[in-house]
Structures are given as C-alpha cells and as structure tokens.
Specification:
Blueprint (H helix, E strand, L loop, with lengths): L5 H8 L5 E2 L10 H15 L9 H14 L7 E4 L2 H10 L6 E5 L4 H8 L5 E5 L12 E7 L11 H11 L2 E5 L16 E5 L11 E5 L44 H17 L1 H21 L11 E5 L5 H6 L2 E2 L1 E3 L2 E5 L6 H12 L1
Parallel strand pairs: 1-10, 3-4, 3-5, 5-6, 6-7
Antiparallel strand pairs: 2-8, 7-8, 9-12, 11-12
Helix pairs in contact: 2-7, 3-7, 4-5, 8-10
Length: about 350
C-alpha cells in the first residue's frame, strides 16, 4: 500500500469547524480514532466479554509508538500522564542527587523532582544547558521542544555533555513526537504525552527506558499486568515482573488506547518526515507574516510560533473562530498536519486588523 499523502489524510480524517492553531494544547482526533473509541464504548455498554477493547489494542499502540521513536517495543512503558512517569524516575533517585533542568520548562518534567525536597535542583537557560552539565549532575531533565515558546533543544549537545560527565538524561518529547523525527534510543529516559502531536485521546502517555537504565528504576506502579506472565500474576505478590520495560507500566486506561492505536497508525502511514516538512513550512509562513506586521516571534525552527506583545489579541482570534493560546505571556500558535496555508493567512489577516 502506498503511503497516505497529507491531502488524502486530512480529507479522510479531519473536519475542523474552526481554524485550529492550538495542537500544542491538544491535538485533533482523527475520524478513525473517534469511530474506534465509539465502537469500543458501545461494546462495553452491551456486555462484550472483552469490555470493548483488549490487550491486543494496547500492544499495538506500544509497538506503533516504538517504531515512531526508533526503539524496540521492549523498551516502551505505558501510562496516562507524563508526570506519573517522571514521578517514578524522581522517586527512584537517591537523596542528594543533582537534577539539572532548563529554566522555564514545563512543570510535569520539573515538579516531580522539586517536590521531593531532598534533591539538588539546578536550572540553566535552554541554550546553555549542555555546557551547564557538570560532574556532580545525576540527571539532566528537559523538553525536546519548549511548550511556552517552541524552541528546540540541542539534543545531541546535551546527550554528549551528559555522557562526558556520567549523567543520565530524561527528555520530554510531548511537544516533539509526531512532527519532529526523534530517536528516543539516545537517551536514558523519554516521556511523551500523546494527546498533542500524536493526536491520541487524553490519558495516553509513553515512557522509554534504555536497557542500562532499567535497573536504576523502581517499578512503583507494578500491578498484575506488569508480570512476565500476566495471567499467573493476578493474586498476591507478582512472582516475576516483566523482563521488558512493561514492568514500568502504569496500568493503561482502555478506551484512550483504542484511539491511540488508530492515531499512531495514521502517523506511521503518512510518515513523520512528511509531517515535519508540511508543518514547519506553515510555521515559517506565519513567522514571516508576523515580521511583516512589525512583530518579533521567538526564533525557532519549530511548528510552535510564540510572539511577545500579542497576548491581548487572543480575544480577536477567538471571535473569528481561530483557536490559539497564550502561554508565558506569548501568543502561541502551533501547526500540525491538518493545517493549511489558508489557516495561516486567516490568522494573519485578523492580527493585521
């Protein structure tokens, strides 16, 4: 089967009733995902033996995500929220460990460490994060793409600096996975909320764990489904935890993963490189338009465009049925595969008014 083109995918899967420029807040669900969740819910309502879903759906979502971020499926754990995965990593660290974070990064990748109270928190500007790693650093925790302003981290530089000093790395790929080709295999841990650029329902998240990092992580969420043989693990202490990263699963909620299976399959059919080319071109068009209007968006090779001095224009966009957001004082617009040049131009017309 030939890969879907973006035009084919958008026509078949999306029908937004607004000019939607806010995927960094929440992605749109494709039609196939909506239909799959609806069918599963109906089965659940009618007493289907599997409750409207099954383990095969969860396994398919795990495998699909693994392919999208270029790691074996055995290194992927599932959950419902990024903060839950980060909390497990934070809880596994020894007292006194030094955590280096990017200044102003998203709370879910910072706060689980900060609330422990016995870890040494240190912060550095994103553009100097790599050179801020030092021998005392235990873990560098940062987002691949900043939620507030769309800046893209120098992943290779941070990874190299961490390796020199023996520090582990944790990357939040929530604002990256789905449009930015991303190899999770180069990092000890990655976490991804799937309801943005992966276009899954809320309640789906992924954790990847490097093989050499797995022994340092305690599977605090391990229930019966974390057993190597789940059907012999239903009562009492689990005799043997899964030999893969599945032992780190937070038991996944069924219905959101029904939708996730479909959304991830769609992205695989289109290809992330195609999504990147389309979306970064739209963002560049929007940035150029903003500059022509006398504004100065934050420089970034990103699908997220953040502009100071325009937060007060959000109401005007909303009145015109254009969905954007304000974060950290910036007007933030974000583009995905279902957006077009016409969406960009319509937003610029409103901002020029």
């Amino acid at each position: 089967m030939e890969p879907l083109t973006l035009t084919e995918a958008v026509g078949a899967e999306f029908a937004p009733e607004t000019t939607y420029l806010d995927t960094s807040t929440c992605g749109l669900l494709p039609r196939r995902g909506v239909e799959a969740v609806r069918a599963a819910a109906e089965l659940n309502a009618t007493g289907s033996p599997d409750g409207g879903s099954g383990f095969d759906t969860v396994a398919a979502a795990r495998a699909s995500f693994a392919r999208l971020v270029s790691v074996p499926g055995e290194r992927v754990a599932l959950g419902s929220a990024v903060a839950v995965h980060v909390g497990m990593i934070a809880a596994s660290l020894p007292a006194g460990a030094e955590i280096l974070c990017a200044e102003g990064d998203f709370a879910s990748v910072v706060n689980p460490f900060a609330v422990r109270g016995d870890l040494k928190m240190r912060y550095a500007p994103l553009d100097t994060l790599a050179e801020s790693v030092r021998p005392e650093t235990t873990l560098v925790a940062f987002s691949a793409v900043q939620s507030a302003d769309g800046r893209v981290a120098d992943l290779a530089a941070v990874r190299a600096a961490a390796a020199v000093h023996g520090a582990r790395t944790l990357v939040d790929a929530t604002q990256a996975a789905g449009w930015l080709p991303f190899d999770a295999g180069g990092f000890d841990y990655t976490v991804t909320g799937a309801y943005k650029y992966l276009m899954a329902p809320r309640g789906v998240s992924f954790l990847t764990v490097a093989e050499e990092a797995q022994e340092a992580l305690t599977p605090f969420h391990a229930g019966w489904m974390a057993g190597e043989d789940i059907w012999s693990s239903t009562y009492g202490p689990v005799a043997e935890l899964a030999r893969s990263a599945r032992r780190f699963d937070e038991p996944p909620p069924s219905l959101p993963y029904v939708g996730a299976e479909q959304s991830l399959a769609l992205l695989e059919e289109i290809g992330v490189e195609s999504v990147r080319a389309h979306t970064t071109a739209l963002a560049a068009r929007f940035r150029e338009g903003l500059v022509s209007l006398g504004h100065a968006p934050v420089p970034a090779d990103s699908v997220v465009v953040a502009t100071p001095g325009l937060a007060h224009r959000l109401d005007a966009l909303t009145e015109a049925d254009i969905v954007a957001s304000v974060r950290a004082g910036y007007l933030r617009a974000s583009f995905h595969l279902y957006n077009t040049d016409a969406d960009v131009d319509r937003a610029l017309d409103v901002l020029a008014g």
